[in-house]
Amino acid sequence: MLDSLELLRAMDGIHEEDVIMAEKLLKTNKKTTHTHRKRIITLALAAALLLGLGAAAYGNGWIGGRQVVIVDEPPVTPAPYIVTPEGKPLPQPPEEERRISVTQALAVPEGLDPEIAARAENSVAAYNEYQAWFQAIRAEEPEDPVDIRAKVNAEGWDALTDEEMQRWRDYQKASNAYYERMDAEQKPLLQELMDKYGLRGRFVDTSECLWSWETWEAADLENWGEIRHDYRADERHLSNQELADRISDMYCHGDFFAAVPAGFDKFYWYPDSDFCVSFMLDLAGGSYATWTTCYTYFSCYDVLHTGGDVMAWLTDGVNVTERNYTAADGTPLVILSAGTQAVIYAFLPDYFMTETVYGKEELSEAELNQIADSIIYTNIGK
Amino acid sequence: MEDKDIVDLYWQRSDRAISETEQKYGRYCHSIAYNICGTREDAEECVSDAWFRAWNLMPDRRPAVLSVFLGGITRNLALDRIKARERKKRGGGEAALALEELAECIPDKTDLERQAEERELRRAIGDFVAALPKADKQVFVLRYWYLVPVAEIAGRMQFSQSKTKSILFRTRNKLKRFLQEEGLC
Known about the structure:
heterodimer; B: 0% strand
């Protein structure tokens, strides 16, 4: 006799595309449609006001704008797998969701130090030209091999023939956003573009990463079976203090942090190029589960970025509040906040910085200020 | 990070696989587990177990849709957990154990037969849901795959709660008839 738990378990048989269709709906927040419209009007009025006050804003050192980090595009979550077996794209993600440009400034606001502005503008111009070129290449990509997806879903990767696997690889290559995977014909053109703007490349396979054993221990991984090992004995895992010191040694002329954070997700870097410090703060005085993650990326102005290498989304990209904040060390920052998420950005002398903040609960203004003050920006740079 | 890159990390046995999974799908899987278990602690344990299970499954698995793959694992672990909880409620463990021991004496289907039946049931449910009208399908999947509360489904679908309940009631009846016709109950 079939019992209800058995039946519930058998719901596993629901086709992937049907589960995904509902998953998309889970990310929407349709109850707030009316509020959104009001907010858009409010934002439009605020934008008009800002335009009108442009000269005064410049004089006050106002820098900002969501257009610097929020990608202006129809809301698309790049999910190449999401098609039905017939090849029809599934409904687009909710329009509230917006992509954040983590590694590349998309615009340069007025009011910046002229030297920083010049470097940032050069970086933005190169990025725009790269994007136009890349889109042209993308236009030639082969059709999405829906039959292969269906076969993989049903039978697994091992079931593919050599010809099917090759077709899949061709498709992957054509739709890949990483410029280091370009073919022999495209690479010289890429180099030409970088030379034109005096930029360097930044290649994923050169990146290095360190972690914190203290964080893993705080996360209580004891029951994780075979992935558990002696992190303390692993040279890639340091204590929080050691990791903070390492970052300071590599990238600063003083301390990077105002105080050693509660934990680290990771610290990775590309030699002579970008680096990323993903750290965790214990704002609420709780356990690992309640820590706030701050994914902080430092993007060199003289490196060509693809924009597709690190992805982040603001789940609610409409109800975003925007404000300027001067950090404890005097560095001007912009804070975009939206519920449990926020993006803090700054045009530093050598880097464009984005800090994507993931809170467990709605982030208050005081908490965001605290997060913003956790880094000593003026110490960055050797 | 894109899904295929996360899957690659699992195949490379890189510890980063877990942290990237946690960052991208932690909240998603947590909400699935929470909807089933109803407590934050159980949900957190399910999600941790899910990462471990994913670590054991990849390689050899290379899921085409990572969210559904991880969500499915989490869902099953959460269902196991509530089953264990119910067993405890029934008799503090020993009664349930005794029932299980006695069940061995009852001539029953073999594991192979049972597995075949379960497979058939999953296939039938998949076909049934696929054929539902779009709105009914969304309501049904939200309720019985994600176990989202009715009030929340109503909000997301912009339906009244009574309409949502009515859709679920009708769909359950249809499913019952469908399973009877298929000889599955």
